[in-house]
Amino acid sequence: MTFKFNVLIDRAAILACALALSLSQSPLSASAAEQAGAKVSDFRLENGLQLVVIPDHRAPVVTHMIWYKVGAADETPGKSGLAHFLEHLMFKGTAKNPAGRFSTVVARIGGQENAFTSNDYTGYFQRVPTEQLKTVMEFEADRMTGLVLTDAIVLPERDVILEERNQRMENNPRARLGEQMDAALFLNHPYGKPIIGWRHEMEGLTRDDAIDFYRRFYGPNDAVVVIAGDIEPEAALKLTQETYGKIKRQDAIAPRKRPQEPPQVSPRSLTLADPRVEQPAVQRNYLVPSFATGKAANLPGQSESLEVLGHILGTGSNSRMYRHLVVDKRVAVVAGAYYDSSALDMARFGFYASPGTGVTLAQLEAEADAVIAQVIDKGVTSEELERAKSRMIADAIYAQDNQATMARWYGSALMTGATVDDVKKWPSRIRAVTAQQVQDAAREWLDKKRSVTGYLIKDTSPAPAQPASAQPVNAEKRT
Amino acid sequence: MTFKFNVLIDRAAILACALALSLSQSPLSASAAEQAGAKVSDFRLENGLQLVVIPDHRAPVVTHMIWYKVGAADETPGKSGLAHFLEHLMFKGTAKNPAGRFSTVVARIGGQENAFTSNDYTGYFQRVPTEQLKTVMEFEADRMTGLVLTDAIVLPERDVILEERNQRMENNPRARLGEQMDAALFLNHPYGKPIIGWRHEMEGLTRDDAIDFYRRFYGPNDAVVVIAGDIEPEAALKLTQETYGKIKRQDAIAPRKRPQEPPQVSPRSLTLADPRVEQPAVQRNYLVPSFATGKAANLPGQSESLEVLGHILGTGSNSRMYRHLVVDKRVAVVAGAYYDSSALDMARFGFYASPGTGVTLAQLEAEADAVIAQVIDKGVTSEELERAKSRMIADAIYAQDNQATMARWYGSALMTGATVDDVKKWPSRIRAVTAQQVQDAAREWLDKKRSVTGYLIKDTSPAPAQPASAQPVNAEKRT
Questions:
Q1: Minimal Cα–Cα distance from B35 to chain A, Å?
Q2: The complex's ipTM?
Q3: Looking at A46, A75, A87, A164, which residue is catalytic?
């Protein structure tokens, strides 16, 4: 059996790796576009399936990804965790290919596979020798509509996702903090629910829930195939037509519409005390535009300005947060900021910091607020603007050395309201950001009324050691 | 045209009239049961409609109420305000009775009418001379399934509810605070949405939304008719059979299931600054069991203990909050606490206080916390326990002098998981509460992890005078 690693896109991870995230989320640079982006091909099959081909001839391998326009934010209320549960169940076989065969074949040919679920999309990928591409496409096309589920398959897998929740959330104070902050940030939008699901709802997920959700959202007209690697566009198109092209359009699939946010008028805060906290932290998330909502509102440069602002404020040891809090004032041991523009609906802009010895979270927060106030009042210098933009674009160039990263940029962009052209133009969009725009974005969006501040502290109360939410699944049911 | 007064059950009102609410929500006393409660009759028609008859022969009038088991918590996500909107639209006529005729007839016969929407139910009532009862029952039965709506009717009424939102919410800082606190208290349950709806969603409500919702929830098997007044049970049953009895059972109506809350682990707080605030306030709501959830969890005495606790803590000038904050410490000018057990899902227990001159909200909150800590640590005295129970039962006796109040007790109880028998036994349930139970309830449920604390302050920033959420509807569209 292959080891299957399900990646759950989780903003809590941001806290731990703001820099890494910034790399992985930034689309192509201009020079990258000359190298590869300009050669990206974009097709649409008659059944509605979109195909993106990214040539990369350095090695005789391809990364094949299929992305479905469905994520946790599309779940029926009361069924949180269903999108991610279905992602797991997609490995359970079809009438043609019983459970395990697909993974076994990928392993036998020396391939890798993976799957992931976010608020806005669900994706599956394999990296295989080019000559095996058609094989994995056939498997993937087969399970787009042919999934077979029984209670005997579904119920043990439910224990797996419950255990995954234990590991990712209940046993991770920072993830718990992020979960609580999301619930408080979104007053109405389903982004407030955890992607992994609320435990009590996960426990009630059934085979019928999974099959209904699958039929509602999985189909060629809701999917994008991204193929990056050693293949010509026309050859990739031919393979796609021979595999996915045979699947009928699913007319029941409708565009996604989620409940939107009311105006945000009250600064919120919350405190999570957890006995496992070794490093307290203060974190704040602001509700801000994503690339998609900025585009829909006809506000060009909005999300790009926030991207640059995020970099200047909080990426790396030259950032304002780091310099002010860690180097100059010595009130923090860790500090940074983040923004991810890729969301179909509103996005989050945030900062976090962990205090040095003897520093309270209130002191630390006041210093972070001072950093933000300074950007709002005085703006940013042209030097730091240019440095940020150059660094962001350079990072993107380095990052695209990874074939899977390239495929992921395009896939996630296409899932969240952007086009291939939007991705190609990312470097020029970033280059166009002015210092005034950065300051305006800070003034407009870093308004505490639009935010939640979270405090993570060590719970030193004697008992119970486990918080109420951290009930492990029965040991005998663990898989 | 009759003046139609739509009552929207809104917890924000609690802040202004905790005592009145405590009266109006307490069911019958034991002696009341001897006077009236014992004579309450309970029938069920073949089509599923439930009938409750409460004899009251003091005057030749009856109060006729129909309650539907549908409220704001049953709305489709993205359609907030729909239950209340439909309540308005129910006055817009049927094929048999064009818009206005029902209200005109009620007015002509000297009757009164009213309607109301809560999270858990929607109700309509008329108070008329007994000989006119059949007339209003015929009208009410007619609109249970015969409502006719066109865009010409629906769209102007949408402006009416938008204006109602303006008046009730946007222009009322305490209501705005309550709205924000609900959104923060409920992490997953639709009780977090305002009953009146989020403005941006109300603006999009359509005729089809209203008709779909109506067909999904309005029918005899989802309704309870309560008749209080000068009529014998058998006569009321006969009239009910002759009117509502002719309506076919609606098999599409299923029991309500709402998304439930995850464990609450983080104390939350929020601040609402509004230029119209004259009296700042601190308010806290805890998520606690309702009568229904206590019953479902087989925890007898749970909600009764909270009722007594609410009375001891915060009802009247002898309550602990009032004595400590207003009389002894002189830090508050207003202080109280409240609990309403009638909710199909979890309920709220809360307190509020407004500071005296020169007192900060933080100081005031600390004193309120001290009051709560003392109840948790030391419990309540047998004297105050007995005084509270006697007063609660006596209040209920006086309150039942109002025929409509009686009808409302039974109706709201039956809508929120209680039975006629539960209502009848309320006095003995309250009498059975012990001091230990009150202390245990305080310790168990008044845990800040389960709470939101709201701070209401005056917004003294120069502009804009109107908060972003308070956009008036077009003046020319006001009705």
A1: 44
A2: 0.84
A3: A87
In terms of C-beta distances under 8 Å and separation of at least 24 residues, what long-range contacts does A353-357 make, across chains too?
A353/A281, A353/A282, A353/A283, A353/A321, A353/A325, A354/A279, A354/A280, A354/A281, A355/A280, A355/A281, A355/A282, A355/A331, A356/A330, A356/A331, A356/A332
Query: Could you write out the DSSP letters of every residue in A122-156?
Result: EEEEEEEEGGGHHHHHHHHHHHHH-B---HHHHHH
Q: Does A11 touch chain B (CB under 8 A)?
A: no
* DSSP string of B112-148, one letter each residue: EEEEEE-SS-EEEEEEEEGGGHHHHHHHHHHHHH-B-
Residue A165: what pLDDT? 97
Q: Which residue of A78, A259, A265 is in closest CB contact with B78?
A: A259
Q: Among partner residues B184, B199, B257, which is closest to A184 by beta-carbon distance? A: B184
| Catalytic residue status for B87 | yes
Q: Tell me the two tokens of residue B253.
A: 């109506």
Q: How far is CA A372 from the centre of its chain?
A: 25
Is the Cβ–Cβ distance between B202 and B161 less than 8 Å? Answer: yes
Q: Whole-prediction pTM value?
A: 0.87
The residue that leads in pLDDT, A272 or B468, is: A272
- Alpha-carbon distance of B423 to B415, in angstroms, equals 12
Please check whether residue A332 is in contact with residue A326, taking contact to mean a CB–CB distance below 8 angstroms.
yes
Taking a C-beta distance cutoff of 8 angstroms, is the pair B82, B209 a contact? yes
Scanning every residue of chain A, which has its alpha carbon at the shortest distance from the alpha carbon of B76? A77
First to last CA, chain A: 14
* A80 contact residues in B (CB cutoff 8 A): 188, 259
Report pLDDT digits (tens) over B242-296. Answer: 999 999 999 999 889 999 999 999 999 999 999 999 999 999 999 999 999 999 9
Cross-strand bridge partners of residue A332: A355
Select from B78, B265, B271 the Cβ nearest to the Cβ of A468: B265
Q: Which of B191, B194, B198 is nearest to B179 (CA)?
A: B194
Please provide the DSSP assignment of B443-460 as one string.
Answer: HHH--GGGEEEEEEEE--
The minimal CB distance from B260 to the residues A200, A257, A469 is found for: A200
d(CA A253, CA A19): 37
Residue of A187, A206, A345, A456 to mutate, interface with B, max B Cβ within 10 Å: A187
Residues composing chain A: 479
CB atoms within 10 A of CB A245: 17
Residue A339 CA to chain centroid, in angstroms? Answer: 11
- State the helix-helix crossing angle for B18-25 and B382-399, rounded to 10 degrees: 70
Cβ contacts (< 8 Å) between B190 and chain A: which residues? 77
Alpha helix (H) ranges present in A54-172? 82-89, 101-108, 133-145, 151-165
In the A/B pair of chains, how many CB contacts fall below 8 A?
95
DSSP assigned state of B284:
E
Taking 90 as the threshold, does the pLDDT of residue A210 lie above it? yes
Closest CA to A135 of A92, A105, A162: A105
Q: Which of B133, B64, B136, B67 is nearest to B104 (CA)?
A: B136
Chain A environment of B461 (Cβ under 8 Å) = none
Residues B205, B214: contact at Cβ < 8 Å?
Answer: no
- The chain B residue lying nearest A177, using CA atoms, is B266
Note whether B78 contacts A: Cβ–Cβ < 8 A.
Answer: yes
Confidence of residue A329 (pLDDT cuts 50, 70, 90): very high
Interface test with A, best of B181, B187, B282 (most A CBs within 10 A): B187
Which whole number is the average pLDDT over B304-319? 96
E-strand spans in A340-450?
347-355
